Amino acid sequence: MTPTHDRPLDLVGIGIGPFNLSLAALAHGIDGLTTAFYDQRPRFSWHPGLLMDGTTLQVPFLADLVTLADPTSPWTFLNYLRSRDRLFPFYFAERLHTHRAEFDAYCRWVSEQLPGLHFGHQADAVRWNAEQGLFEADFTQLDEYGEAEALGRVSARNLVLGIGTEPWIPEPLRPLAAAPALPVIHSADYLTHRERLLGCEHITVIGSGQSGAEVFLDLLRARPAGAEKLHWLARTPAFAPMEYSKLGLEHFTPDYIRYFHALPEGVRDDLVPHQWQLYKGIDHDTIHAIHDELYRRTMDGGWPDAVLTPGVTVRTAGRIGAGKIELHLEHQQQSHRDRLQTDAVVLATGYRERPLDQLLDSLEPLLHRDSAGRPHIDADHRVVLDPAVTGGIYVQNAERHTHGVGTPDLGLAAHRSAHILNHVTGTPHYPLPTRTAFTTFGLKRPERGAPRTPAAQAAR
Description:
The protein is an alpha/beta fold. The chain is built from 13 helices and 18 strands.
């Protein structure tokens, strides 16, 4: 096993999605902090299957990788525009929300210039070396075809896991999704299969969130009027708008995260499912565009051949004949069951956090878990380990059960990265606001204070 670095690093990140890219960008501004970041993909890519023309972020452009922690950073979105001679076009466009493809290009620009990022490196295992007081991470370096090329190891005082999420497919549809002959695909791969889908006579979209709405709208616009042959099904009781009121958005502030983290575990678990409209709804512009497109198709008389039905669960699914798919449905409020035959299914059924267990297998005896078997994450986004472990393992977008609905939100990326870096170094390199919301969440407010410093940092 060849060491990747001759000397132990202060911080190693595993995964280079937007959140760890944010951390790497802010870490670059701290003199003397040694870091490295690894990702098994050959290059940065952000939801390529959903970069349809015209789709935008659901957060303002200030929610880039660094601005809300350090607006003077060279890695801001505005500096990206400046480097492309596009500041004036952006200024006159008066866009608060950027195109998704533009955000992807911005992140790729950062990833191609920022030092210390290692793509094509697959993390295999992490262990704690008690004798040296360091974490060790083993890697496989991959060639351009994804084949193993070399092995490596890196040692670090602290780790940050940003391995992200993976598409989630409901149990009844997994056998069909695994059959390559059938067009049953997750929305994460929509653009890859779009032409194949458009060649199908009847298409069903399942899922009521933003991705489901965007896929349905894109298919609707591509189908001839009167022959759309589209079904849009959702488990939620309505195709509902995302909560976007000013005070509602304060659920995505550090103030609310502190409040949520201080709640008892059972209260947190009961609360998150009831907050689905905060992060699983559809933005108003997309809902308007869908209704406008459907309405336009009624102008010559008749109705579009599109069925939109919320409150529906897919109980089971199967294959009929050579290429038909049969969905067995149940309407929850009517307690009525029915069947739907279709030629293709797009599953806009969301994402789940990638489990940390395999990567942290050797640390199992040192991990503290909650009553549901999940790693306990402290207020500083750090996995709670045995006190004998002097280093820290931090997580990004793996702590919804402890930090709430703001966990995957891009608007909190820079703040969380800055918090982690302040905690790792024991120094407030990035001064963070003490108050971020007009709302006072609860009667008993969590204590505020300077970040606690890991014992390992005392020896730095």
